[in-house]
Structures are given as C-alpha cells and as structure tokens.
Amino acid sequence: MPEANRKMKDIEVPGTRQFANRVEEFPGCVDLTLGQPDFETPQPIKDAAIEAINTKSMKYSHNTGLFELREAISNYYKNKYDAEYDPNGEVLVTVGGSEGIDGILRAILDPGDEVIVPAPTYLGYEPIIELSGGVTKFVDMTETGLIATPELIENNITDKTKAVILNYPTNPTGVTYTKAQMDALVEVFREYDIFVITDEIYGENTLEGEHISLAGYPEIKEKVLVINGLSKSHGMTGWRIGYVVGHRTILEEVTAVHLYNTICASIPSQYAAIEALRNQLNVPEEMNAAYVKRRDYIYDRLVNMGLEVKKPTGAFYIFPSVEKYEKDSFKFCTDLLETVQLAVVPGRSFSEFGEGHIRLSFACSMEELEAAADRLEKYIGMLEER
Ligand SMILES: Cc1ncc(COP(=O)(O)O)c(C=O)c1O
Question: 200: Cβ below 6 Å to ligand 1?
Fold first, then answer.
C-alpha cells in the first residue's frame, strides 16, 4: 500500500480529541474537554444566514470574502483598536481561525525556518509548522508566570527564526497581557526581521481588563498577522468563519494559499458573520458574564483542593497543576476518567511545558462544573489515601 507523507508519522490525534472521543465509553461522564462556547449561535445571526440563502447569490464570493464582511471586520478593528486595515487587500476571510493558521504558516515558511512558540499553548500550530517544513521551537513560559516575556522571545531568536506565534488570551491557561507587557514585547518585535503571528481568537473573551491587540501597534504592522474569528466570540464554531488581518504585501501571499485551498469561505456563513459584526457586538459581553461566575467558582474549588493554579483572566479554560499527584498528565487524565468519569485534557497536549497540568473548560453549565469539581475532589481524596 502506498504510504503517506513521512511527516504524518509524527502527527498525533490531539489530546483534546483523544479524551473527548472516550467520553462516550463512560455513561454519565462529565465532559470538561470542550473547546467551544456552550452558548448557541444567537437567533438574529442564524436568521441573517437564512435570509441570505433565500435572497442572495450563493455563488463563490471574492477570494478574500464578501466585501460587506471585510468592511465589517475593518470597521471592528478601527472602532475597537484604532487600527487601519483596508477591506481591499488587508482583510482575508478564512474557514475558521484554523485555516488562517494554515494559510499564514504555509505562506511564510521555507524548509528549516524556525518558529518560536511560547508554551504551553494551543495545539494547532505545531503540526502545520512541521507539515510546512518548518521547525517548532517551543519556549517555556512556566518559569515566567505563563507569560511570554521580551527576554524569553529575544533569547530564542536565531538567524533561522522566521516567526513568533503568540496566542492570548491563551488556550489552555487563560492568560492575558497588560498594555505594559505588550509594549515591552513590541519593543523586541521592532528590532527583528521576523513575522509576529498573533492568534487573538479569544480576544473578545477577556474576563478582566481590556484585550490589547497587536493590531493596535502600527509601528510593526508590516510584521504582524492577526488571526481572529467568530467561533468563540459568538458561539459560531460550526459556521467556520475566521479571518486574518495584516499588511497587504504578506496578506497577498496568504490569500494565494487560501485561494488554492478553499477558493472562499461558505457564503451563508459569511452573511451570518456580517450580522454578528454589525449588530451583535454585545454578545461576547453576555457570555463573559457567565464565564466570570463559573471561573470564580471553579478557581475557588481548585484552590480549596490544594491545587496550584493561576486565575484565568481570559478564554474559558483553567489549568491547574496536578504534578504533586502525578507528573504524567496523560496517566492522570486516563485514571481520572476511568475512576470518577470526569474528562479533562492532559496538559502535555499543549507541549511538553504543559506537562503536570490538566485543562478544564468552563464552557459548560454551572451544574456540570459543580459535578466536575466534586468528582475531581473525590478523586484527589482517593489519591491521598492510596
Ligand atoms: C487558540 C485557538 N486558535 C484557533 C482555534 C481554531 O478556531 P476556529 O474554530 O476558528 O477554527 C482554536 C480552537 O479551539 C483555538 O483554541
């Protein structure tokens, strides 16, 4: 039988999926592996898509997306971050943030190019870097309070470095950055001829303070590619709408990859996204109010259990250390699932620097969260008696 690309041997099913897939084996299991809002897409957004299906052309759009959507994205950046992105040439609508990640990495990487990825971080970058011939250079944020500091970035830049990938609010830690922290990073980015890929898909899910977008730094615009989308902000994971904004010179190359990959994003979904960005900008705020309550609850429960944990200020994940019980997070999560039927994600899924931790999602009901905390507490009690 013919064989797949040799690089595929190193590409595993993500830890998030591995555990989510096992949930079905355990009736009554509490599932906190979820990487999507538990809120359904708001009705006016669905209605906008239905209306469009009945009244608009359903042929391909421009490769970069419907003009009205690119304009809505451009206006969003202008109004929220005072950032200028021309809807013609500086905004690209993609099939989720995922396709943005893929398009950017394939457009910029030559074989052997290094990409600095502060970690623990989202598990979607490494496979695409590797498939693009690049080299993933995870750098350890566990020694710097789960924050990418200027020193951490600068100390890891070599003459092979092509890009840095930041993700904030961060999946899986829920970490956000202050303006001062971002300013300091920008000082480093100014100095080096490298791309800064910034995955801000949880930007609207900032639970404390304000999201400081790298789009708000015009002095480094030609290096910055911002990934964003509606999956998390508007409960729209299934619509598959994301986007990239960036300087036109590099965005043209990303668009070329996108064009050969997908031609354009789904048209009904693009109309739904227009409604979301024009008229539903308060939706994330409503969701965030619920996330804050749940975050406070689960944080207190974890602290009371004696687990070391940083309070998340963004996204909908919390990332306690379980190292004092078990260093191998896959082992911990497997035993947790099999013993008390609680599914969470092993920290090692988010690079070696996530080892010894587990990721719990609080994109679930309060009842589920209470049940999950009770089960985790019971399990820890059992470990202490063993
Ligand atoms: C950090 C991060 N970036 C990108 C994505 C992909 O999102 P999308 O549904 O827009 O493709 C996810 C999904 O979990 C994510 O956590």
Answer: no
CA of 98 to the centre of ligand 1 (A): 6
Best of 94, 231, 319 for a ligand 1 pocket test (most atoms within 8 Å of beta carbon): 231
d(Cα 276, Cα 265) in Å, to the nearest integer?
16
Number of structural domains (the chain) is: 2
Do 167 and 267 share a structural domain? yes
Is there an atom of ligand 1 within 6 Å of 35 CB?
yes
The CB density around residue 50, as the number of other CB atoms within 10 Å, is 12
The Å distance, Cα 305 to ligand 1 centre, comes to 30
Ligand 1 atom closest to the CA of 35, numbered from 1: 14
State mean pLDDT over 72-88: 98
Q: What is the CATH number of the domain that holds 355?
A: 3.90.1150.10
Residues 333, 31 contacting (CB under 8 angstroms)? no
Q: Which atom of ligand 1 is nearest to the CA of 237?
A: 9
Ligand 1, atom nearest to 100 Cα: 11
Model confidence over 276-305: pLDDT tens digits?
Answer: 999 999 999 999 999 999 999 999 999 999
Residue 16 has a pLDDT of 76
**Long-range CB contacts for residues 286-292, cutoff 8 Å, separation at least 24:** 287/37, 287/39, 287/205, 287/235, 288/204, 288/205, 288/206, 288/207, 290/39, 291/205, 291/207, 291/316, 291/362, 291/363, 292/207
Give per-residue pLDDT as tens, 141-182.
Answer: 999 999 999 999 999 999 999 999 999 999 999 999 999 999
Same domain, 139 and 257: yes
* pLDDT interval class at 14 (50, 70, 90): confident
Domain with 334, as residue range(s), is: 6-41+283-385
Confidence of residue 24 (pLDDT cuts 50, 70, 90): confident
> Is residue 235 within 6 Å of ligand 1 at its C-beta?
no
Nearest residue (by CA) to ligand 1, atom 14, is 35
Rounded to the nearest angstrom, the distance between the alpha carbon of 229 and the centre of ligand 1 is: 8
Radius of gyration of the chain (CA): 21
State whether the beta carbon of 172 lies less than 6 angstroms from ligand 1.
Answer: no
pLDDT in tens, 96-124: 999 999 999 999 999 999 999 999 999 99
Euclidean distance between CA atoms 367 and 87, whole angstroms: 44
> Is 274 found in the same domain as 226?
yes
Q: Are residues 244 and 334 in the same domain?
A: no
Per-residue pLDDT, averaged over 207-234, amounts to 98
